[in-house]
Design goal:
heterodimer; A: 385 residues; mainly alpha; Formate dehydrogenase/DMSO reductase fold; B: 259 residues; alpha+beta; Alpha-Beta Plaits; four-stranded mixed sheet; two-stranded antiparallel ribbon; 10 strands
Amino acid sequence: MLDKALCGSKRYWGLIIFLLAIIGVGVLTYGYQLREGLGITGMGRSVSWGFYIAQLTFLVGVAASAVMLVIPYYLHNYKEFGKIAILGEFVAIAAVTMCLLFVLADLGQPQRMFNLILHPTLNSVLFWDMIVLNGYLFLNLIIGWTTLGAEKKGTPPPGWVKPLIYLSIPWAVSIHTVTAFLYSGLPGRGFWLTAVMAPRFLASAFAAGPALLILLALIVRKYTKFDPGAKAIQALAKIVTYAIITFVFLFFCELFTVFYSQIPEHMDHFKYLYMGYDGYGAYVPFMWLSLILAGISIIMLVNPKTRKNEGTLVVACVMVFISTWIDKGMGMISGGFVPDPLHEVHEYIPTLPELTITVGIYAIGALILTVLYKVVVSVREEELA
Amino acid sequence: MSMDRRKFLKVAGVGALGLAGLPASRLLAADDPRFKPPAEGLQGKRWAMVIDLTKEAHDADAISVCHKIHNVPQLTNPRHEIKWLWNTGFKHAFPGLASKHMAVQYKGEHSALVLCNHCENPPCVRVCPTKATFRRADGIVLMDFHRCIGCRFCMAACPFGARSFNWVDPRTASNLDEPGEVMLTFPTRMKGVVEKCNFCAERLARGLIPACVENSSDGRMLFGDLEDPHSDVSRIVKSKYTIRRKQHLGTEPSVFYIV
């Protein structure tokens, strides 16, 4: 089926070349990081994880959200998602690949990466994160490729895929839960030390992922002959609505505990992010933007008029995506490290090379997604022809 | 080099035999004198330290000797700093215990001396995905610089900020870039790995106490086996009120402070 990705329009090849160019710049910058060390980033002794790990956290959520299509379609036989489920699975493949690349980019000694397997350590959450992320990648590769292949031949998918599809449901939950456990089990970090971390991650994931899927589905409909279906898009919009409301609810649960108890070790991180602390507050405008966007998007999604109008739905989905990205891709990691365990404030600002590598990895994800979606679209267009 | 079939089989056969013998030799390794601790080494069940904050602080020697003998690089960028043993304010060493009404000697920015706590229940060891950081039977938490993949999970897990990462190549630091400046009794590190205080494990093996204690001003630092009732640290901890950093987190630090 991959041959379908090799014949496309000028616009398709233009996009591929554009992405390859960005990837090239990213790879070169990574070579520079490999030579100089992680000192070229804005990370330091005090804020020892930064943009890379933040993107991992955000993208794990995007990957996990494929389950929001799989559950209605395969468990509840919701036929409208039949055409679109594959789009979710392929988003998952691109997102998990980016996650693994972000972990790789963050390692000080990437050449020793296989020590994770040579010396498996069951008490380390990072070991389990590697297991669940790789497992999820392969599950989605196998499921997506097999079901699309069967569809191309006009046959039902083979029986052995079904158990894998069912397995992929709890597995999707596990990838984001385990990723939350990377943070929520650390004794000295008050910002992360909360049982609501994993549920909050899942809620924001189930908002961000389906919002992205709506945008992708609309792009596919605009530029190809394949129509994912207005009903499917509306069903997704409802999922986004519930998820973003749940996310904001869980966030306020956290705020209440932190600010009513007034325990400094927990509160000072929120103060840093939303009000500034000790004269530092680079993230304050972003964090408020995130909250405001979440609020406006909820109003637009709850109101049936603006939800059913695809023009305003797009605006709401973009807002949801930006809001959840700021929350996880910016605030979640910096907020946990500032103030640090010695209650010192060292602000983290990512550097240009760090951002270039980040954009490069996003471009790799976009390239994977473009190629996979091209295959889907070609198969579907053949069916129509 | 020419080799006929017969000769090849001979060599391959001997090689295979050698491989088969490998597990047996591994079993015997425990008795191999090369892997036994040296006879002159200090033995302990749980090494611990007492730091007396009521004594006036003259820690500069202790810190500089520690960093010298362990080839700790001196880097100008504060973000890249490597610290094994350092002075900080009481409010930083013990956040949650400081108050604005405290005695003036606790208010200075250098009043406390901090290092790795060599916890009995170390979170850094719990999170390390490769066992590159591990706790020895005598209580010392050590680093394997050759196994560390540089994921820095241990730095996120340590509640004491005791760990440093080599953000840049430490061998290019101004105090290590000439061959004569490097101490040959301890390895230098490469970029991309984590490091921290090791309670001078390499000195204990030679029968010496940690260098910081040896070079500390009178009575400021003590070192000994907490399980030995006659050791200095046991006597102090049993007879005086001591505190440990962030005791409520349950990591059971091995560094006690007299305040």
